[in-house]
Amino acid sequence: MSGFKVVIPARYASTRLPGKPLLDIAGKPMIAHVCERALAADAAQVVVATDDRRIFDTVSALGIQVAMTDPDHQSGTERIAEVAEKLGWQPDDIVVNLQGDEPLIPPAYIRDVAAALAGQQQAGIATLAAKIHDADEIFNPNAVKVVLDKNGYALYFSRAPIPWNRASFPEHHVIGDETHPHFRHIGMYAYTVGFLRRYCSWPASPLEGVESLEQLRILWHGEKVLVNIVEQTPEAGVDTEEDLWRVALSLGQV
Q1: DSSP 8-class letter at 236
Q2: Which of 46, 59, 228, 245 is geometrically suited to a Cys-Cys bond with 66, CB 3.0 to 4.6 A?
Q3: pLDDT by residue for the chain (254 residues), tens digit each?
Q4: Which helix (H) or strand (E) holds 95?
């Protein structure tokens, strides 16, 4: 898969870690590690989208393309759509949304989600999921679950334990077998530029407000989401000081 683009939304504001994209990990800012992952995925173009001059200047000094975007955007998806318009990308161009706090994301996953979208015609968006092997994860509301149809398109996303195994829950918490596995959603997306334009024209849906899951807007408005299954859930991104230390350990730099 070649020819896809990666946009990395990066905001300075963060409740728990202000200036998160610029925090040092193993001698360089976190955003530099994320950009390296995107470049290692062989993307045709990598762009950081930010609303902060400090991030803009840091990324520019790295030699990575960066775009200033409207500070009033409500989501990274809206920020990516603005970049696509500014750079004149075409409706069929594929764009991967790579979060700026994911310095450990496997480059293969970036390629996988882009290739999955390119390999079908029914959906304008693709995402990733991995099979759940830990029963406690099914009941963890911070682990978003997804249920698929027979062709690999999402039926629903939820923080609840779906599908509900009537024979095993809640007393035994038995992991589903191959006939009804549980999948954890991985929040990486590939879109066509045409889909991004449609998405940004839609109002928020009641379901996404209830679950606090933006992707439910897509299902609410009647469009498909392709879900590509990968081998395992990647390591979590950076939200706390402890996460910074964990990521440095993973990179073998501590």
Answers
A1: P
A2: 59
A3: 568 999 999 988 776 778 889 988 888 899 999 999 999 999 999 999 998 999 999 999 999 999 999 888 878 888 899 999 999 999 999 999 999 889 999 999 999 999 999 999 999 999 999 999 888 899 999 999 999 999 999 999 999 999 987 777 766 555 655 667 899 999 999 999 999 999 999 999 999 999 999 999 999 999 999 999 999 888 888 888 888 788 888 776 54
A4: strand 94-97
